[in-house]
DNA sequence: AGGACGGTTTACAACGTTTAACGTGGATGT
DNA sequence: ACATCCACGTTAAACGTTGTAAACCGTCCT
């Protein structure tokens, strides 16, 4: 059914090896031969068999992207960018949803899809990168996100401390005095962004109040809405909220709207990620906007370099450019 | 580096084939042998090589999902559901972004990833399904969306005519008299939903006005915002809008907010898809809510049936259950 | 005791590709 | 006339797995 290399060879009147040479851009081939072969390839609609090729070469030109959930806009947008960046280089991306479960993350790493995958871009949620050993995978790995790579892997992330500092300082500069934070946690994103948040408060001579620092079960709209309700129930509710991602912020905005409070007059809100929803919400959402295209492009480049062995032995740690996008939710 | 079947066989003291038999649940194996082999597999952390297996079997347990863009919430959510449904059956999903370009769609179909893919779930945008021949792929294909399958393929979609009829009728029942539509088009979704829209108007004894039927370049927020501005510029602006998807609706809501109009008092808005954003927007968005989990599950089942040859020669056409979710944007 | 039988295991080839090692005939340059 | 390079061809051997068919082994039957 499917046409093979030998079919092409027969039609072009050359050997199998020559066809293979043409396909793999072997340098010493006459234009005439190449033309014949290419004509045969086109006529027969030949497409190389990926399985056979990767079995033989040990390379597949497939990479994996492991993210918590593709239904979440930030990861969906990131996944789209990474797919695009990879396609530009002739690479196919396989997306794995880990649902933030340690087992699923481990499965992806262990399995590596049965040698099919050349490498992986991994956004860990449950697994601490420090616990990863390169022996776990045997294949190149690029880490995304706040958790430190421990010098074992390449990593690429926004400088969350600085970005959170910027976001909080922006609220301070608006004259806000009770600035809450939603999404605080002990590890990973929740810890790093809290650090920047507290640093900014301290720089402004303001104490950080435990009551104003709320953890979130997840980083979804629902969690943001719930946390915001808790904040509004306080004796002294905040006049500003820094949410550690946009979904939390959108949830918080929802609660504020339900409560009949005005944004930004009564409460100013800042998010993090700059997902498209925030740009169209009423009010539009002030947020930290990382350059996702840059991130995607560099993540893919980093990984491919390592796959090709072009990268040295030292592991790189890249910082994603970002901007504070001031919009309506802080009076932009 | 990677452990192979022969390594496991050596350690277990059996032949390679026996190990293969254990892995593939070949029935005639003594408990003792099976135990030995399984111990060896566990000890060596053996994972089958996907390339070799699929080269030999002609099956890979990979399916492709081709969608216009995964950054779009509806497709992101759908992709997430389909991934989940496939994983439950031990199948891996490979997602292809076609960006709505005919070339990219054709590439996915033609290529089928070089025989790696067992079948494809395809949401066409540029390619008319009628133009597809099964010879194009040689592999099973399940179509998603409004465009008719021409009896050549399995297809699964919401009954868009009926759903649009319901949505429009809901607006009529609120007493609205100038009901606009955004997203109208000559083919596919834009045509089918217009049909239901017009049918509802007719049933209510209302004429359809060309000025109130707006096309949209894409189905994104930006297009919705632009179209809404056009509608507001009319001598007699509408008092209700049916947007052919939620993104258009969210864009329209943005324009209405900018114009200082109240929703639903001045203008009522209905969307289509029930993406999560709409549930948290202010106001929350009334919309047609298809059962995405049902859709995903059945799409995967349909495809796997055909791959396994379990499906008959007649092609099935499934209708996705949906509900009209009445929320704030129509005064819910 | 010899043979048939059924369940269990194994040897071997094949899937389509690339790589390696060599070979060959022609064109080119001296 | 001879070495050199080029552009291919030939053949064989992998890559890791599974299908086919045949070999093995103990048991039961006659």
Query: Could you give the order of strands across the largest sheet of chain A?
Result: 2-1-3-4-5-11
Which two protein chains have the largest interface (Cβ within 8 Å of the partner's Cβ), and how many residues from each? A-B, 52 and 51 residues
Number of strands of chain A: 12
- The best one-word shape of chain A is elongated
Strand fraction band of chain A?
15-25%
Secondary-structure-based class of chain A equals alpha/beta
Q: What is the makeup of the main sheet of chain A?
A: 6 strands, parallel
Helix count of chain A, per DSSP?
A: 13
Described by its quaternary structure, the protein is homodimer
Q: Helicity of chain A, in percent? A: 40-55%
User: What is the residue-mean pLDDT of chain A, rounded to a whole number?
Assistant: 90
The SSE string of chain A, one letter per element, is HHHHEHEHEHEEHEHEHEHEHEHEE
Instruction: State the separation between the terminal residues of chain A, measured CA to CA.
Output: 62 Å
Low-confidence spans of chain A: pLDDT under 50, at least 5 residues?
A: none
- The Rg value of chain A, from CA coordinates, equals 25 Å
What does this structure look like?
The structure is a homodimer of 332-residue chains. With 332 residues, the first copy, chain A, is α/β, with parallel strands linked by helices. Helix content of chain A is 43%, strand content 17%. Chain A is built from 13 helices and 12 strands. The first copy, chain A, has a 6-stranded parallel β-sheet with strand order 2-1-3-4-5-11, with helices on both faces. Chain A has a 6-stranded mixed β-sheet with strand order 7-6-8-9-10-12, sandwiched between helices. In chain A, strand 6, helix 9 (188-203) and strand 7 (213-215) form a beta-alpha-beta unit. In chain A, helix 1 (5-12) crosses helix 3 (31-44) and helix 8 crosses helix 9. The mean pLDDT of chain A is 90. Chains A and B meet through helix 4, helix 5, strand 2, helix 11 and helix 12 of A and helix 4, helix 5, strand 2, helix 10 and helix 11 of B. Chain A binds a DNA duplex (30 and 30 nucleotides) through residues 2, 4-6, 14-18, 20-21, 24, 28-30, 33, 48-49, 51-58, 115.
